[in-house]
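#struct-queue
[09:14] JT: dropping the first one here, sequence first, then the structure tokens:
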Amino acid sequence: MHCFRYDDLAECHAGSVVRLDKEENGHLFKTLRAAPGDHTLLMDGNGLLAEAEVIPGKELVICSIEKKQLPAAPFLHMYIAPPRRQKMDQILRQATELGVYRIIPMISERSVSLPDQDSVNGRWKEILFDACKQSGNPYLPQVSEPIRFADALKDAQENCERRFFGSVAECPPNEEKEKVLHAAWFVGPEGGFTREEEQQLLDSGVEPLHFGNWILRVETAAVCGLALIHSNLK
């Protein structure tokens, strides 16, 4: 069943009649040619999921609505020096599919791109919602305002019990899976962290995480790290 974005689900109940925004409405009725009696899903990105029926007038009546529980910990916070647009778009989609809890753009010494607030609230949010609809993830990742590298380290210390960054050097193995509520994953820019930044990471208690012998592209490292941390700390 197709899923569509409807931001005001919190104000609805079974029997409420709603109309989607222009883009979602066009997808449902022009692209999919929905007709009265067809059923679809609605989500608001905050855990609410509703089943709705198409009625005449290109409107929907809500049949049922429920609040989905947050997935099990760990809640993953991704601190990332954003790469250029196309690569960052890919990372946003895949991170959402993996259930990332929070995305924090950060400014590092080799940063090549930084989104403005309009991009974060506009294009980024659209990409995240599309990934939620495709994957069935009812929770839109939180996106913070861009912060500097030093502030990202402090933010992670305050919010996450375990913190990691990628390293091609061999690291001591972690034999047992550990239950952690919040974990941080630091993703450097396309040129990588500087030596000074790597030392700051280590000095702040951020642990090197080894998952390959070779330097990875940023879009590969971002996704691999999230998956590995989630698996090890689940």
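[09:21] JT: and here's the second one, same format:
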Amino acid sequence: MAGGLKNIFGKKEPMSFLDHLEALRWHILRSVLVLAAVTSALFFFNNFIFDTVLFGPTHPNFITYRVLCRLSQLLHLGNMLCMESKVQFKLVNTQIWGQLTMYMWGTIVAGLIITIPYILWELWRFVGPALKPNEMKPVRGFVYAASILFLIGAAFGYYIIVPWTVNFLNDFQMSSTHIDNLLNINSYISTVTSLVLWMGVIFELPVVTYLLTSIGLISSSFLKKYRKHSIVAVLIVAALIAPPDVASQIFVSIPLYLLFEVSIFVSAYCERRKNIKTI
């Protein structure tokens, strides 16, 4: 444990720097072993992981396309949001190790997403014992909140960001010439996994905000002061991860901005808890 070691009288003594490194090494080792075990188990479900999950956005009947088309009709937008007819992917492999490499990488990423709650729990086991009792209570739900937010972000990336991004990039052509887009499997898998993982990380913003507010590095007034700046930042992020059409920008920008507003609420909640304890 990272908090201290017990002596012969059962009392905790401060751990040295090397003791902390040793404890951290075991937490990392257990996380790696669990990740390896989960990844190994997923090798038996390769058809589901690749055909159903990773290659899901290449299928015309992917759930996102069906939902968006239905939403477009409900909003009387015609086929503005429909993408079924545009889904025409041609995945190719140009390297002799390409399919094997991407097979292993895709399985590892799937294992990582499944293992994230356990990795966060190991992180909490390392950091938690070093906290004082009054510091422990406010962050007791760290593992649950961080795990849920990461999974929500990963789902948002997979069901919203990935379909729009890969379709836009696949359909994009320079006006001066005609070049057929044959998507390299390495490029496709890397794009999908990167977007999913990064969205999972971005959705950790409320948890990071709570922790930073707890130690006094930021405040709700600080976040409110830069609210207008956050809108610009959200639009920039949306422009980077979504196609440059109005519908895509709106669908991506709104959740990201709501995430910032939730962070302000979380920061204010943390401040109220701190004020109650100091009274």
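[09:30] RK: nice, looked through the second one.
[09:31] RK: The longest helix spans residues 246-278.
[09:31] JT: good to know. The mean pLDDT is 80.
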